[in-house]
Design a protein that fits this description.
The chain is an alpha+beta fold. The chain is built from four helices and three strands; from the N terminus they run αβααββα. It has a domain at 29-87: Multidrug-efflux Transporter Regulator, Chain: A, Domain 2. It has helices spanning 8-33, 40-47, 51-59, 76-87; strands at 37-39, 66-68, 71-75. Strands 1-3-2 form a three-stranded antiparallel β-sheet. The longest helix is centred in the N-terminal third of the chain and has 26 residues, at 8-33. The protein starts with 7 loop residues before the first helix and ends with a helix.
């Protein structure tokens, strides 16, 4: 096993980068949770899934949606309910 020694500066830089990533994630989640309806790209980001997986969830009827003018919209409450079902499985 190889041992690497880190300097204080390297640890400080890592800490700063980590804090910025956490802040970015929190801001993204706050933006998504304040919306009543979400577009497909926002749902994919929130669930961390691909567009194919999202399409499968629509086809299987596991995730309710509305299509308006070629754009799929999902109720935020439905996404939360879907997540609750996954967590309880």
């Amino acid at each position: 096993m190889q041992i690497e020694i880190l300097t204080k500066e390297e640890l400080q830089r890592f800490k700063s980068e980590l804090i910025e990533e956490i802040k970015k994630t929190i801001r993204t989640n706050e933006t998504l949770t304040n919306k009543r309806f979400l577009r497909s790209s926002e749902v994919r980001t929130m669930l961390k899934i691909s567009s194919g997986t999202l399409q499968n969830l629509r086809i299987e009827g596991r995730l309710p949606y509305e299509k308006i003018g070629g754009i799929f919209y999902y109720a935020h409450a439905d996404i939360e309910q879907f997540l609750g079902g996954i967590r309880n499985s």
